[in-house]
């Protein structure tokens, strides 16, 4: 049974009188992994930031677990939403263990429980605790830092995790490795809702159980990857898919 957990109803967002999102409606179900794909400036980050209340819409309704976001305590809401971004922002003077435990320490006092949780999270993102717990962020590679970012986002066991282009700055192989990890983590943690913004079509189709394709602030298509590939709903979606096909063709011409 599907259970709506994030709902946008006729949401509009303007910046300085310019309408960026004219009329956005969609529903995400509990436990889904949604990717949001679109060209630069199509409104992906704005949409994600409206989910955790960092940006307020000008009109329309946003419901989180059935409750209007305007009626929620935004500080509490954000503690229930992990957030992973490209500039992950680890505190340089804190160890990896301390970085992951910042918010859990604010919320509860039990040191032993928090220490155990941090170790469990490091294992989940495949960083051996005995090796990484006491290191400082600058002693980690970019990919390892992003793993810490994912662990930190999961530290309070949030029901939702939002990702904004988290792997955009990583090399192709590290990126692929982390995509697999995030997919595995989502599968291993029951009922967590993931929303993941990317402009990489391969990443979007690989990770998303459903992919929301945005174009100029509107949804061009919101469907399972197979459906998008088989039945692109608009010319824009066709063009996006065309970029993958073109790459495949070039690859074959050059090397087959
Ligand atoms: N704080 C702001 N003030 C004014 N305009 C903004 C602001 N934030 C975003 N915009 C504009 O809103 C539009 C959508 O921006 P958004 O960051 O949501 O796009 P995006 O799809 O995430 O793009 P990208 O892939 O480049 O990050 C853009 O035209 C952008 O210039």
Automatic annotation (TrEMBL):
Ribonucleoprotein among the record's keywords?
Answer: no
On the tree of life, the source organism's domain of life is Bacteria
* InterPro entries recorded: AAA+_ATPase, ABC_SmlMolc_Importer, ABC_transporter-like_ATP-bd, ABC_transporter-like_CS, P-loop_NTPase
UniProt KW Nucleotide-binding keyword: yes
**Pfam name, any one:** ABC_tran
Q: What EC number(s) does this enzyme carry?
A: 7.6.2.9
SMART domains given for it? Answer: AAA (SM00382)
Where in this chain does the record put each ABC transporter domain? 6-241
> What's in the keyword line of the UniProt record?
ATP-binding, Nucleotide-binding, Transport
User: Signal peptide span per the entry?
Assistant: none
Q: Which GO terms describe its molecular function?
A: ABC-type quaternary ammonium compound transporting activity; ATP binding; ATP hydrolysis activity
> Under which name does UniProt file this protein?
ABC-type quaternary amine transporter
UniProt source species: Limosilactobacillus albertensis
Query: Lineage from the top down?
Result: Bacteria, Bacillati, Bacillota, Bacilli, Lactobacillales
